[in-house]
Amino acid sequence: MQTQTSTYSNFNIKSIRNDFPILSREVNGKPLIYFDNAATSQTPQVVIDAIVDYYQHYNANIHRGVHTLSQEATEAYEASRRKIQHHFNAKHPHEIIFTSGTTHGINMIASSFTSLINKGEVILVSAVEHHSNIVPWQMLCERTGAILEVIPMNTDGELILSEFEELLKKQPKLVAVTHISNALGSIIPIKYIIAKSHEVGAAVLIDGAQACPHLKPDVQDLDADFYVCGAHKICGPTGIGMLYGKEEWLNKLPPYQGGGEMIAEVTFEKTTYAGLPHKFEAGTPNISGGIAFGMALDYMNSIGFENIAKYEQELLVYATKKLLSIDGLKIYGTAKNKTSVISFNVGDIHPYDIGTILDKLGIAVRTGHHCTQPIMDFYNIPGTVRASFSFYNTKEEIDVFVEALKRAVAMLS
Questions:
Q1: Which residues form the catalytic set?
Q2: 277 preceded by cis ω (within 30°)?
Q3: Count of CB atoms within 10 A of residue 106's CB?
């Protein structure tokens, strides 16, 4: 398959694709075209090498040993924490808490907030949230008697900010919103939402799972109280992520889990907790994953997030135009400000059937409700086909995808 050359500085699509071993494989006898990046990104060789290097050369537990291997592992793990701090522009490295992923980070805050919220107080989420940023807050409301309110959306997949401002009159205790919708690609104006929420004294948690592959959040500029993401959507491994929390909030909240590493002193009468970040990091962590997370950020920063954003926008515009040439195709999520995600249906064909045929032709897309059932209910549909593009995809792949889609539609009509 031919690939185009980009004019962006330090951005060579052929060289970039060579960094990802999986992109050279075939699926069902066809060259793999991977358009399921909103579910998980692929992993470059340098990140794979970082994982292998840990297990081959300095596999040991961290923070606990005086021997050389433990000290080397500890330094590599903490160096990765500092990389993440600098990438997100956190004020302190101890404001970065390693988690197993976005869902873990949200659940940590939802659990710890139990002691800070009372019956009848309000928590706000939005209509475009992933289930991971709905269910933990519902569980918190069940535990405490708090009330969950929802910021509505319009048919373009944008939040109705006037309704958000009305909901703020209820003095919410916490506002939890996504940065970018995984189902629709809508970019949410979180800086505005954070500022308005702070005016009424609400804490704000941002689900950055879908944003971090496409842009570089600055948590101090955003003034977010909490920001969560997972490494596996930023070219890193699965099972590792991060929770950013402002120091004053993390000091205020109780631990999420108890166990080793998160303690200062334990007796059978009383336990005192370690300082940040260890208070929230009980047990042996995913050490290799944490180290590889930092390597993934190094890799993406070497390409440049400005380059990534510009190139992915080109792919979005190109794919949107090509797809809309297909009779009966409807795109869900037409926000003016969106990233490289296209959710669509064609006539009354079930998305699962389209996805199955595309897979036979070597093309990986996501079908279903994308863990956003309220969005599907809003549009009164069972689900969509979702094609999500990354910086290692090409316009030529989109051409093959569109022709394959036409073939699938012809077979299913």
A1: 371
A2: yes
A3: 25
Is the distance from CB of 333 to CB of 156 less than 8 angstroms? yes
Q: What is the pLDDT of residues 306-338, one digit of tens each?
A: 999 999 999 999 999 999 999 999 999 999 999
Predicted TM-score (pTM) of this structure: 0.95
DSSP run (H or E) holding 315: helix 305-323
pLDDT (tens digit per residue) in 43-102: 999 999 999 999 999 999 999 889 999 999 999 999 999 999 999 999 999 999 999 999
d(CA 127, CA 158): 9
Count helices and strands in the chain by DSSP H and E runs: 14, 17
> What residue ranges define each of the domains in the chain, with the CATH number in brackets?
13-43+305-412 (3.90.1150.10), 49-302 (3.40.640.10)
Best CA proximity match to 299, nearest among 230, 391, 402? 391
Name the strand (E) or helix (H) holding 316: helix 305-323
- At what angle are helices 305-323 and 395-412 packed, to 10 degrees? 30
- Long-range interactions of 65-74: CB distance < 8 A, separation 24+: 73/287
Residue at 171: amino acid letter: Q
